[in-house]
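Subject: complex prediction, re-run

Hi both,

The earlier run crashed halfway through, so I resubmitted it with identical inputs.
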Amino acid sequence: MDAIFQLLQNSGAPMPEWLALALAILLPIVIVMGLFLTVFAFLTWVERKALGRIQNRRGPNRVGPVGLFQPVADGLKLLIKEDIVPGAADRVVHFLAPVLVVVPAFLVLTVVPVAKGFVPVDLNIGVLFALAVSTASVLAVFMAGWASRNKFSLLGAMRGVAQVVSYEVPMVLAAVVVLMAAGTLSSIGIVEAQRGWCGWFVCKPWGLVAFVIFQTCAMAEVARTPFDLPEAESEIVAGYHTEYSGFKFALFQMGEYVAAITMGGVTVTLFLGGYLGPGCDLPRIGWLVSAGWFFAKLGLVVVINIWARGTWPRVRVDQLLAFAWKVLLPLSLINIPAMALWYFLPNRLIGWIASAALLAVALVGLTRLNAGRAFEKRSYRFIS
Amino acid sequence: MNIAFYILAAVTLLGAALAVSLRNLVHCLLALVLFFVGVAGHFFLLRADFLGAVQILIYIGAVAVLILFAIMLTRNVSGTEGGGNSLGGAWWFGAGITAALAALATAAVRRSSLAATLSSPVTEQGIVKTMGRLLVTDWVVPLEIMAVLLTAALIGAVVVALEEDRKS
Amino acid sequence: MNGFPGKGLLEGLAVTAKNFIGSYFDDNRKERLFTYQYPEERMPLPENSRTFPFLVYDGTPDQLRCTACKVCETECPPQCIYIVRDSDPNGKPLQRPKVFDIDISVCMQCGICAEVCPFDAIKMDCDFERSQHGRFEELVAHLPSLLKSNDYYHHIKPTEADRVDATRKRVKKPSPAAAAPAPTPGPAVAAVLSPTPLKPMSPPADILTEDEKRAWLKGYQSILGTGPIVWPLTTKKIATTPQPPTPAPAAAAVATPPASSLAGGEPWHDSGLDLAKRMELAKDRSLADRLMAAMAQLDCQACGYDCRGYANALAAGVTRDVTLCAPGEDETKNTLETLLKEAGKL
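This time it finished cleanly. Structure:
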C-alpha cells in the first residue's frame, strides 16, 4: 500500500494527495479481494470434483464445461433464495453474525504476502495481527447460535466455540517456533528468513512438527472436516447455521472457506517459504514468478485440506478437545525447546539429531499416554 | 490522520454508550466488543501495533467470550432481563464521578514525564524485542509470579471440573 | 499399538489417493464411477418396479383385454379410476370401456387394480417420467395413453408377462361372446385408439455388446440382490418356478361341476343380455342355474368364484352372501335374495 502511494506521488501526475491516498488504499483491497474471491470460487469447484472422484462419483459436470460455472450457479441460487429469519430470533445479532464470520477471514489477507513486494500492508506485527483477527470469528459463531433461538443451534455454537478456543492455543504456540527462528513478526521478514537451500521451515524437524500442528489447528479453527462437528448435518441438523437461508448462509460458507484458504496462505508464509522459489528474484518478472510459487504452494496446502476432508471421519467432540489439550498442546510446547536445541547446539548436525529425537520421543510418548485402553473381548451372561 | 481519529473516537464512544444503555444483555456485550475494536483502532493510530493486536486477541478473542459465557450461565436465557431505563435514577452521580476521573487522568498524563522518556523513537521491532528482553531480565520475578498465579488458576479450574465429575 | 503414531491416518490418505488417481486411469473406471448421467443414461429398473397402471392389449389396440367390469374401479383405494362402459349403436352394452381415466395425481401406485383384475387387463407400468405442466387435467391419463401392447408388457416385465400368458392359455374357454365377431367400436372410440410407442431404456453408453451388457447388468443386480434378471437388454426367457394358477379361493369346494348338469348349455351366459332376458332363459332350470342367470355373466371372479361356481356355492349353502356380485349391482342382489328366499335357503 505504501509502495503504491509512493508510486502515485512520484509519478508526477496531477493527483491531489487525498486521491492518491484513496487509490493507494482501495487498489490493494480490490486486487486482493478480487483475486481471492476468484480463487475461492475456483477452489470450491476443485473441491467438489476432487471429493467426487475420491468417493467414486463424478463431481458437478452440468453447468459449463466440466462444471466450471457451478460456483456461479450456487451463488446465484443462494442469492435469490428467500431470506428467512425465525420469528423469535434476535434480528440484529442474527444479521451481524455472518458478517462477523466473513470479515476476519478477509482481514487476515492484509498481511499475507502474495508475491514479492505484494502485501497490502506490511505490518511490523503481521503474524500476530493475523492470529488475533482470526480469533475474532469465535464471537460470530456464538452469535449465530444464540440469535437463532434454537437449542440445537446453541448447542452447535457452544461446541464450535469450545473447538475454536481450544485449537487457538497450539496454533499460536506452533507459530511461536517460527517467530523464534525468524526473529521478526513481520510476514515479509519471515518469508525472507526462509531463503537458502532447505531454508523453508518445514524442512527442519521442529518446523515439520509445527507445520503439521499449525495446519491441523487451522483446519479445526475453520471447522473443516474432520473437525466439522459444529456444522455437521448428520449430527445436529446444521449446528449454528441451521436457521440461516439464502445469502446469509452463503456468507457463512464463504467465510469458512475463505478462512480456510487464508489460513492456508498464512501456513505457506510461515512454513513453506511464502513466495520464495527459483526465479523469484528475476528483475522484471520476478514478482510474477513469485506469485506463481505462492499460489502453487497454496494449492498444495488446499489440496491436502481437501484430501483430508475426503479421507478421515469426523471426530467426536470429546475426542476433539482431548486431542487439542492432551496431544497438540504438549507437543507444541515441547517443540519450543526442540527448536532451541536445534538453534543453540554448536554442531548443526547434532542439533538436527537432538531436536528430531526429542520430538519423536515426545510424539510417541504423548500418543501412548493418550491411547484409550484396549477393550477386552465382551462376555455375555446367558450365552455359553 | 485526524479524520481517522475522529471516526475511531466516535465508534468507541458509541460502543461505550450503547454498552451501558441497551436493554438486551447480549446486545450490550456486542456494543462492548465494538468498544474494544475502537480502542484497538486507537492503538493502531498511535503506532502501538503490538498493543492493538494484543487488544484484539485478548479482549475480543477471550474476554468477550468469557463475558458471553457468564451471561449465558447466570442470567435468563432469553437475555431480555435488565429492562427499564438502564440509566437508573442516580445517573447524574455516575456522570459526575466519570467527569472527575477523566479530568484527573488527563491532568496526570499531561503533567507526567511520560512524553520525555519516549523521546527516543522506538520502532515496533524494538518494542517487541525490548519487551521480551525486559520480561526475562529485569522483570523476570513478576513474570514467574504471574505464571504461578495462572497455573494455580488452571489447576483450580481442573479441580472444580473434576469434583463436579465425581459428584455426578 | 502397532506402527508409528499417525500411521493409520497416512494409510487412509494413501487409499484415498489411490482411489482418486484410479478414477481417472483405471480400467474399470466407467463402472466404478457409479453416477448415472441422467437424462442421457438411465438406471435399469428391476423387473418388479412399478409406477402407474396401464391397459394391456393383445395384438392391436382393438383387442384390449379390458371388459369394463369395473372391479379395479371398485377396489382402487383412492378411487382414481373412472370407467364408462361402451355400447354399440343400438344401445347394447359392450364388453369394452368407452372411457377409462386414471388420475395419476391421485393414484398411489399400490397395484391393487392389477391384483384384482380378472382379465389381466390392467398392469403396473414402470415409466416414471410422467411430469406435466399442469396439476389437474394434464395429470389424468385417458384411454389412448393407457393402452400398451402385450409386447411392451413382455419388454418391461418378462417373467410376469410369461406367467400371465401361460395362465390365460390355460383358463381360456370358448365363450359365445368371444366366438361372435368382435363388434366394431363406435366411431368416437376408434378415432382415439392408437398404439403407443415403447419408451426405450438406455444402458451405459460405452457398454456395447450384448454379452457385456448382460454381464454388467448381472453384476449390478447381484449387488442389489434382485437375482439374475436379464431385463431389459435381451429377450431371453428365463425358467421360472411354476406359479399357482389364478386364485379362486373357494372354487375348489364348488369346482365346475361335471358336464351332465350342463346339459342344455347355458344360454343365459352372455353378458350382453339383460337380467329379465337371462331369467327367462333360465326359467325352468335348477336353482343353481337360475342363481347363475341372475349374475352379471362376466366370470370376473370379484365374488371369489366364477359365475357358475358362485351359483353352486349359493345353492349348496356354502355361502349365504348375496352381495358378492360386483358387476351385477343391486338388481342381481335383489334377484338372488328373492330366489334364495323362495328356495328356503336364506
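Chains B and C do not touch (no CB pair under 8 Å).

- K.
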